[in-house]
Each structure stands twice: as structure tokens, then as C-alpha cells.
């Protein structure tokens, strides 16, 4: 990977992280930026369908299966008994880009926004993770961090680009 700027979006499940990112991506692209994304999940996931050739190859023991087609390619890597890689180890697999948005990885040492909805009844987590540089919420909050309006993605996009030096 090149010298892409890296910025995180973290928050409790159901806080709106994915929805926010989904709204930010076209705004970044409209500014001519090439953007990649890394998403962390605590749950097992599979992008393959049981019975398909690639699934059968993984089930048979292949460590990596690369699918290639006219519109995209995807590399699946089975961890088997190895530990989950750190974010830095994952980032090296990305092609050069201008900006990498990281969803999740709240303890990673990278600047991030905490998405917080008081209606969820969850506590803040930024006090335990000093890399949180701002909050995005749908309600007024009493915090010493910059507070961004979760319902104003263009303003959040501008704030992020200013913060990482891409404005």
C-alpha cells in the first residue's frame, strides 16, 4: 500500500457506522479520491456459497482462493489455526489509494470518529480509546471532543478530509 491516509469510524452495533460510511464514500469519490475500506467483524462471515467451486476448494484445505472475473477479483484467506491479523498486517494487502476508511477496530491507534446514538443506551468508549478525535451523533452531547451531526454526511466528510490533510 502507498502512503494513503487512514481514518476510522467506530461505534456500538446499531449506531449507524455502516450507513454513515455508505453516505461518505460517494462524497469522497466526488472529490476525485480513490477510497478503500477495511471492516472488522466480531462474527464469523463467509462471502462464498456452500457448494460453489471456491467454497469446495477452501473446505478441501486451500489456504487462499482467488476469484477473478470481468468486474472484480477477490482473495479469500483462511486463517485456520493462526491468530487474527492486526490492522497493519491487513492494510499491506490494499492497492494504492488516497484514503482508507476503517470500520470497527476501535482500539487501533488511528484517528477515528465514534458514532454515538444516546437512544441505544450504550456508554461512550472514547474515554478508553484516546485515538477517538471526534463524535458523530444524532443528538446533542456533553463532550470535550468535536461533535459532528450524524445527519450531515457532507460536513462529516469535509471534517475528515481536513483532519487527514486531503481537503
User: What is the β-strand count?
Assistant: 8
Instruction: Kindly name the structural category.
Output: alpha/beta
The overall average pLDDT, rounded, is 91
Largest sheet: 6 strands, parallel
Shape: globular
Helix content: 10-25%
What is the CATH superfamily label? P-loop containing nucleotide triphosphate hydrolases
How large, in whole angstroms, is the Cα Rg? 18 Å
Strand order of the largest sheet: 2-5-1-6-7-8
CATH topology (level 3) name: Rossmann fold
Protein name: Molybdopterin-guanine dinucleotide biosynthesis protein B
Domain Molybdopterin-guanine dinucleotide biosynthesis protein B (MobB): 6-138
Organism: Uliginosibacterium paludis
Pfam families: MobB
Summarize the structure.
This protein has 167 residues and is of the alpha/beta class. The chain is 23% helix and 25% strand. The chain contains four helices and eight strands, in the order E-H-E-H-E-E-H-E-E-E-E-H.
Could you give the topology of this structure?
Layout: E1 5-11, H1 17-30, E2 35-39, H2 53-59, E3 64-68, E4 73-77, H3 87-91, E5 99-103, E6 112-116, E7 132-137, E8 147-149, H4 153-164
Parallel strand pairs: 1-5, 1-6, 2-5, 6-7, 7-8
Antiparallel strand pairs: 3-4
Helix pairs in contact: 1-4
Task: Give an overview of the whole structure.
InterPro entries: MGD_biosynthesis_adapter (IPR052539), MobB_dom (IPR004435), P-loop_NTPase (IPR027417). Strands 2-5-1-6-7-8 form a 6-stranded parallel beta sheet, with helices on one face. A two-stranded antiparallel sheet has the order 3-4. The protein is globular and about 55 Å long. It has 167 residues and is of the alpha/beta class. The protein has helices at residues 17-30, 53-59, 87-91, 153-164, and strands at residues 5-11, 35-39, 64-68, 73-77, 99-103, 112-116, 132-137, 147-149. It contains 4 helices and 8 strands; from the N terminus they run E-H-E-H-E-E-H-E-E-E-E-H. The longest helix has 14 residues, at 17-30. It has one domain (5-43, 85-164): Rossmann fold (3-Layer(aba) Sandwich), CATH 3.40.50.300.
Amino acid at each position: 500500500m502507498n502512503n494513503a491516509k487512514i481514518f476510522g469510524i467506530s461505534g456500538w452495533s446499531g449506531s449507524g457506522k455502516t450507513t454513515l460510511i455508505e453516505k461518505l464514500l460517494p462524497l469522497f469519490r466526488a472529490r476525485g479520491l480513490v477510497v478503500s475500506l477495511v471492516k472488522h467483524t466480531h462474527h464469523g462471515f463467509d462471502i462464498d456459497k456452500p457448494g460453489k467451486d471456491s467454497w469446495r476448494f477452501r473446505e478441501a484445505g486451500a489456504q487462499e482462493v482467488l476469484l477473478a472475473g470481468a468486474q472484480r477479483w477477490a482473495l479469500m484467506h483462511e486463517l485456520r489455526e493462526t491468530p487474527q491479523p492486526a490492522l497493519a498486517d491487513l492494510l499491506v494487502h490494499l492497492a494504492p489509494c488516497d484514503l482508507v476508511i476503517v470500520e470497527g477496530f476501535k482500539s487501533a491507534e488511528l484517528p477515528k470518529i465514534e458514532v454515538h446514538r444516546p437512544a441505544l443506551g450504550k456508554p461512550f468508549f472514547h474515554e478508553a480509546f484516546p485515538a477517538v478525535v471526534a463524535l458523530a451523533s444524532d443528538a446533542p452531547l456533553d463532550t470535550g471532543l468535536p461533535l459532528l451531526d450524524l445527519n450531515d454526511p457532507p460536513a462529516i466528510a469535509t471534517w475528515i478530509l481536513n483532519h487527514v490533510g486531503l481537503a
